[in-house]
Amino acid sequence: MVNKIKMPLEEEEPVVENQPVEQEERSPAVSALFSFFTNGVVSKEAATEALPFVLFLAFLGMIYIGNRHTAENNIRKIDKLNKEVKELSWDFKTLKADLMFKSKQTEVVKRVDSVLGLKVPVEPPIKIKVSQNEYQD
């Protein structure tokens, strides 16, 4: 069966084969970089020869980044330890002050009086004199 109704060919655009294809608009930096590599300034052989150096630079970059992370971690640890040292110093000073307060004579007397029943003597101590003659007998 043959289709007898034909569309007019005028609606279709004629195809021109030798017309240059328009390239996408590129920024000047991208087009310069593209032309740098495509126009033969850097050949495949030169790029292949430079590959070990590029890999070496990438390795150095990774070492640099790793070193930076390690340094930052060390700084965080140092700050944490400094805070801990300050806190322990405050605890030490507080405990030392409490010990000094509890070792005063009046505080010791209060504690000994309630626990052991000892009292502070009111009269001064008596000096006992021993003569040399009595001691030698």
How would you describe the overall organization of this protein?
- This protein is mainly alpha-helical and 137 residues long.
- The protein has a domain of 81 residues.
- The protein is built from four helices and no strands.
Give a quick precis of the structure:
The N and C termini lie far apart (about 160 Å).
Stretches where pLDDT falls below 50 for ≥5 residues?
A: none
Q: Distance N terminus to C terminus?
A: 159 Å
Number of helices, counting only DSSP H or I runs of 4 residues or more = 4
Percent helix: 55-70%
Write the layout of secondary structure elements.
Blueprint: H1 28-38, H2 44-102, H3 105-116, H4 132-136
Key structural traits:
137 residues, mainly alpha
